[in-house]
Amino acid sequence: MRVRDWVEATRPKTLPAAVAPVLAGTAIAFGVGVWQPVAAVICLFFALLLQVGTNFANDYYDFVKGADRPSRRGPTRASASGKVEPEVMRRAALWVFAAAFLVGLQLVWFGGWWLVPLGILCILSGWAYTAGPFPLAYNGLGDGFVFLFFGLVAVNFTYFVQAGGFSPEALAVSIGIGALAANILVINNLRDHEDDRLSRKNTLAVLLGKPFALGQFLFQTFLAVLVPLGLAVATGNAFLLIPLLAFGLSVPLGQILHKVDQEVTLANRALAMTGQQLALYGILWWPAYLL
Q: Three-class SS of residue 139?
C-alpha cells in the first residue's frame, strides 16, 4: 500500500463538495460580523472527514457489490484494483468516520448538545450511501443525499455554529452549493451509467436515462445561477453577483458534457471542471460579502 493509493482513494476531485459549503457559510457569517474561525475550521475538518469516509466506504462496497467492473471507465478504485485490501479499506472507512465524530463533537461548545444526533445522522448517511440493506446510491437517492448533506446541512450549520441562528441568505446559498455538489455526482453517473446498469446500481442516470441526467445537470447549474441573482435583487447589493464568475467554466463544460460516457479523458476533465466550479463558487462568496 502506497500513500499515493490512499490519496487517490480519497477522490480529490470530489473534495470541493466538502470545502465549498464551509467556505460559503463562513463567508456569510463574516459578512454579518459573527464569524468564529475556530468553529469554521472544525466544520471544515468534519466535512472533509465525512467526505473521505463516504468515499472509502463507497470504494469498499462498490467492489463487494460488483459495481466496480473491469470495464468501468472512471479512475481505478483501490479495492477493485487490489491496491488496498478490501477489509483494510472497510476498516479505514470506519476509522475516518470515528475521527469525524470526534472532530464534530467539538462543535457542541458552539452549538449545543443537540448537534450530536445531527452529526451521527450525517455519518450514518455517509455509510448508508453504498452500505446497508437499502444503499442510497443504488436506489436513486444519491443525488438527494449530496444536495441535502453537502448543501443544505453543511452551509446552514456552518453558519449556525458561528452565528447562533439561521439566515435566509445562508439557506439560499446552501441551495446553490448543494446543486453544484450534486452536479459532481451527475458527471460520475453519466460516465458510469452503462456499467451501473449492468451492476444494478440504479442511479438516476440508469433509472431515467442519459437525457434526464443531462437535463438534471443543466437545471442544477441554472438553480445555482439564480441564487446570486436573487440575493442581489433582494438586497440591492450588486457585489452578491460576484459568484456568477464561477460559471465562466460552464461553456467549456457544456461542450463536453454529452460525451462524458464515451471517452475517459473527457469524463475526467468534466469531473475536474465541475469540482473546480463548485470550489470557485464557494470561494467567491468571500469577496461578495467582504465588499
A: strand
What's the grid cell of residue 31?
459578512
Query: Counting beta carbons within 10 angstroms of the beta carbon of residue 208, is it exposed (0 to 12), middle (13 to 18) or buried (19 or more)?
Result: middle
Specify the long-range contacts of residues 284-287, CB closer than 8 Å, at least 24 apart: 284/242, 284/243, 284/245, 284/246, 285/23, 285/24, 285/27, 285/28, 285/173, 285/242, 285/243, 286/23, 286/27, 286/30, 287/239, 287/242
Q: What are phi and psi of 149, to 5 degrees?
A: -85, -35
CA 167 to chain centre: 22
Protein fold of 3-290: Farnesyl Diphosphate Synthase (1.10.600)
Separation CA 185–CA 250 (nearest Å): 16
| Alpha carbons 115 and 123: distance in angstroms, whole number | 12
- Sorted by where each begins, the domain ranges of the chain are 3-290
One digit per residue, pLDDT tens: the chain, 291 residues? 578 889 999 999 899 999 999 999 999 999 999 999 999 999 999 999 999 999 999 999 988 887 666 555 666 788 888 889 999 999 999 999 999 999 999 999 999 999 999 999 999 999 999 998 899 999 999 999 999 999 999 999 999 999 999 999 999 999 999 999 999 999 999 888 888 888 888 999 999 998 999 999 999 999 999 999 999 999 999 999 999 999 998 888 877 887 777 777 787 888 889 999 999 999 999 999 988
Residue 74 vs residues 16, 119, 202: alpha-carbon distances, Å = 18, 31, 17
The distance in angstroms from the start CA to the end CA of the chain is: 47
Rounded CA Rg of the chain:
18
- Round to whole Å and give the CA distance between 124 and 93: 12
Q: Is 59 exposed, middle or buried (0-12, 13-18, 19+ CB in 10 A)?
A: buried
